[in-house]
């Protein structure tokens, strides 16, 4: 066969193949681009929906907390329970520090005994607060006290600790006695009546320890 005629014969076929190839590539590229765009748009829609949901949840939560706080502010039972829980939590921190860092056997033994009583009180108050849907108050003054005491060692630390625990239990007794005349719920009144003798015993114990450490 004449070579020139051969190339003239196959040239149209070659051009058609190239055209088909280009068409396929263009179609594939266009399809990939469209799918990618759709996925990106879908992802952005999901992100926007998630952000909107999170905002709504936060607003609902903030509103609920505000309503609870307003309710508590006018309720002597909730005021007592929420504050007593927070005070008790901080005293537990100090009692645990006494067990760990105290240098006298007497101090450590007193701290262990009081810790048992304060953990029992914590459980009773927490159960009541949970039942009534009272929010937690987290004012951490015990951490600041311990930080201030960190420069003291030995008997100086013991004396400072005993002084703080004495003052703390004086406040506890006063708060519980005042609350006894103000709270409405008989369950809380009963808790106060059952707890006051223990708090008085703790106070006497701390006064004696404080005097012994002078």
UniProtKB/TrEMBL annotation:
Please list which residues make up the signal peptide. 1-19
Q: Which Pfam families does this chain map to?
A: DUF4142 (PF13628)
The yes or no answer to whether the keyword Metal-binding is present is no
Known PROSITE patterns for this protein? PROKAR_LIPOPROTEIN (PS51257)
Looking at the record, the residues that make up the DUF4142 domain are 77-208
Please provide the record's keywords in A-Z order.
Answer: Signal
Q: Which residues form a coiled coil?
A: none
What name does the UniProt record give this protein?
Answer: DUF4142 domain-containing protein
Taxonomic source organism: Flavipsychrobacter stenotrophus
């Amino acid at each position: 066969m004449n070579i020139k005629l051969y190339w003239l014969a196959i040239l149209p076929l070659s051009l058609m193949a190239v055209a088909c190839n280009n068409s396929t590539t263009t179609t594939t590229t266009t399809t990939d681009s469209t799918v990618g765009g759709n996925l990106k748009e879908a992802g952005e829609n999901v992100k926007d929906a998630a952000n909107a949901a999170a905002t709504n949840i936060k607003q609902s939560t903030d509103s609920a907390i505000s309503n609870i706080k307003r309710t508590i502010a006018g309720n002597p039972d909730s005021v007592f329970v929420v504050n007593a829980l927070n005070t008790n939590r901080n005293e537990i921190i100090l009692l645990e520090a006494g067990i760990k860092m105290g240098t006298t056997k007497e101090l450590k033994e007193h701290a262990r005994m009081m810790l048992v009583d304060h953990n029992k009180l914590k459980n009773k108050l927490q159960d009541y607060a949970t039942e009534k849907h009272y929010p937690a108050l987290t004012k951490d003054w015990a951490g600041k006290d311990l930080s201030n005491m960190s420069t003291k060692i030995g008997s100086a630390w013991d004396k400072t600790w005993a002084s703080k625990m004495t003052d703390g239990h004086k406040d506890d007794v006063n708060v519980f006695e005042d609350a006894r005349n103000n709270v409405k719920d008989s369950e809380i009144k009963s808790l106060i009546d059952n707890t006051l003798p223990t708090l008085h015993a703790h106070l006497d114990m701390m006064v004696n320890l404080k005097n012994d450490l002078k």
